[in-house]
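Researcher: Checking consistency across runs. Here is 6-bladed beta-propeller again:
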Amino acid sequence: MRLLYLILIPSLFLTCLRFRVDNLKDEILFRIPLGGTSDTWEGVVVNQVLTNVPMTVPVGSNVVALADTKQSIIKLFDRNGRLEATIGNPDFKSLSGIPHYPFRFGGLGIVAITEDGDLVIQNRISSKGMELPPGQESLYKSYSGNFSTSGTTILPSFLVQISQKGVVKFMLGASGKNSEPFRYIEALIPGEGERLFVYQRIAEEMRLSYFEEGELKGNIKESSLSVFKSNDAKDYDITLDKILPHPEGEYVLASFSYFSKKDKRFKFRRIYRYSFMDSEAVFMKEIQDPSEILFSIRSNNEFYIWETEDQGNSIRLQVHDSEGNHVNNKRLPFAPPRGQWRETYTDSDDNIYSVRIRSGALEVYRWI
């Protein structure tokens, strides 16, 4: 009997640990006023909805960078909401006392901030002379945050790595510095140091490219993933959900959804680990609930599964260890009204952020 107790106690401890939930608190980092002047963030209301606010806001140590596509400039704001500098349009009329660093962008897209504070800016090649499908607005002319990355028209682009003082480090193309343009970019993911990951599409195939100091280090190509050649492919239609890189570039986690070939219904989701050097899959996790989604990878090799709770009023991040074991939970309770809150995202330093629109301001919160 005593031996049975000794066996049960660790088991109960692990069960409690697995279902422990840490409630995180939101800490406001930035509050950027919305307005119609050059020193604020211009908000355009369409049908009583603010349409030109970015879903995610790239955060540096003391600044945020907002792409104003309408004026073709990047605005840098400090933690007090003051405009620190602008970068871009040479014809932009700068404000007294606020430095402006001219650079002629073809059309602004996604913006990211590296660990060292440099800006990585998607510079779309001008669509002048291109014939667009009826009813589709030119993506590069859309207001900041309102452009669609799923449009049928592909606008090639380069990435510009530029300092916060307007010093251009290099131009990055799909194969490295000064190479051919990217065709479609879905996400820019800064890693540790000078690492940068670009999630892109080439010829209808998704690809995660890994760059370091502007040099291409490797690719994970959708067509090369062994899951699609496995025995499961005979019974299921398998689709790639996303590929997320570890911040140090050691490996990626790829999430796949499996649908029955008979009735086309969702059956389960699986997460596999791949390295940039080896295309063999290492099974990590199977998920039965279609609403549970791979969210991010931490530097310590843990990863988060996103789970919506309380009709969206809170988020539970399931913490999984490097072997795929569910070890903890973190809850993000959103203060009402829920409609004020926008995207939630992470960075390479394991910070979790959320964007909120409230009382005439764009706010960036960190969960602690």
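Researcher: Does this match what you'd expect to see?
Model: One thing to look at in this run: The two ends are 43 Å apart (CA to CA).
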